Amino acid sequence: MKKDDKLTEQLKLYFGFDSFKGNQEAIIRSVLAGKDTFVLMPTGSGKSLCFQLPSLMMEGTAIVISPLIALMKNQVDAMRNYSEENGVAHFINSSLNKAAIEMVKSDVLSRKTKLLYVAPESLNKEENVEFLRQVKISFYAVDEAQCISEWGHDFRPEYRQIRPTINHIGQKAAVVALTASATPKVQQDIQKNLEMTDAAYFRSSFDRPNLYYEVRPKTENVDKEIVKYIKAEEGKSGIIYCLSRKKVEELAEMLNVNGIKALPYHAGMESSARSENQDAFLMEKVQVIVATIAFGMGIDKPDVRFVIHYDIPKSLEGYYQETGRVGRDGGEGQCIAFYSNSDLQKLEKFMQGKPVAEQEIGRLLLQDIASYAESSVCRRRVLLHYFGEEYKKDNCGNCDNCLNPKKQ
Q1: pLDDT by residue (tens digit) across 285-325?
Q2: Which residue among 33, 56, 215, 393 has its CA within the 20 to 30 Å range from the CA of 370?
Q3: What is the Cα–Cα distance from 385 to 251, expressed in whole angstroms?
Q4: CA-to-CA distance for 303 and 200, rounded, in angstroms?
Q5: Cα-based torsion angle of the residue sequence 283, 289, 293, 295 in order, rounded to the nearest 10 degrees
Q6: Which of 299-303, 382-386, 397-401 has the lowest mean pLDDT?
Q7: Rounded to whole angstroms, how far apart are CA atoms 205 and 256?
């Protein structure tokens, strides 16, 4: 039997898919060969499979470092669905009590567990370092690797400790870094920080041809405009992003008053209420979820049809990531952003009181988002250029500037 067939057979056996997508197969081969591997793959193109499948095929346990508790839980549940053995995947984070952590450790030590998800804070704890020294580690996967970089849109300082901790654990195992949005600067930061100078590098295109991009001026009629827009999209699911929790609550209420079923989602809510609202959206009991950026990492709803940015986001990277939750099934996706200069000034004000270096980076990121919003050239070209990719066409035919070229 050819080696190729074996890999596809394993894919079918564990996950029920008949074939790989894009770079998946090449990435998995790189991981199986024990190479450091850098994966840049837009949201929704099957990143997790790139570490899930090799972990099942290799000896030992793969350590997946992931930033969000909800994301870990979703992925662990999904892995358990694919396997007879419940212990095949576990997570360790602050939501578990001591007894639960002991149970996880005993499954890992008895070699039942192929995938262990850990939050970076948990990985860096001395007692977990001691524990992991006793475990045969197949490889480390650093998910959402852009969190390492201060230039990334969701920088987390504890991510910078990952490499020192891996060195401290002291086992020779490959590192796989995965990110869905990283500018060239952020990529360099990730590779330098994780000491992956010699990594195999895989990059998928950032172009999502099925997404339509539009920027509208934000006026005092913005609420009316949104109601009118959503009513025209009857029966289609959508997400509205706002910057403040207060605005999330107000907007969700305003939509309900206008006969649109909507629920709020933000980090200030009880986690049980958040999960309920998320499930109601996934099960299509409501048409719209109004959220802060706390919503979205790991949301797997392929048929979201529109994403509206009520407030302009803090960076183009954040914008790309949030619009990436629309049209994942390949069907149409509309990305509408409302933009006003006063919103930009508000964001600048938020940065006061932060360290000077952080303010500098923040301002440069805001300049990029402003020039995207104010540009009269193809939106797709501006976005892709930001991620270091050249867009060859003169007219994408799927953004407001290309469809109305006179608009200045």
Answers
A1: 999 999 987 676 556 688 999 999 999 998 998 899 899 88
A2: 393
A3: 33
A4: 33
A5: -20
A6: 299-303
A7: 38
Tens digit of pLDDT for each residue in 144-191? 999 998 887 678 889 999 999 999 999 999 999 999 877 888 999 999
Size of the chain, expressed as the number of residues it contains: 408
Cβ neighbours for 289, distance < 8 A, ≥ 6 positions apart: 238, 239, 240, 262, 263, 264, 265, 277, 278, 281, 295
For the full predicted model, state whether its pTM sits above 0.85.
no
Strand ranges of the sheet holding 115-118, from the earlier edge strand across to the other edge: 89-92, 115-118, 61-65, 137-142, 174-179, 37-40, 200-203
Q: What is the token pair recorded at 236?
A: 């289609």
Q: How far apart (Å, rounded) are the C-alpha atoms in residues 401 and 375?
A: 8
Residue 406 binned pLDDT confidence (cut-offs 50, 70, 90)? low
Displacement of CA 220 from its chain's centroid (Å)? 32
Nearest 5°: phi and psi at 263?
-135, 150
Residue 33, pLDDT > 50, answer: yes
Assess contact for 300 and 74: CB atoms under 8 A.
Answer: yes
Mean pLDDT of 363-390: 93
| Residues facing 212 on adjacent strands | 334
Cα pseudo-dihedral 223, 225, 227, 231, rounded to 10:
-170
Dihedral angle over CA of 340, 344, 350, 351, nearest 10: 170
Give the three-state DSSP class for 258: coil
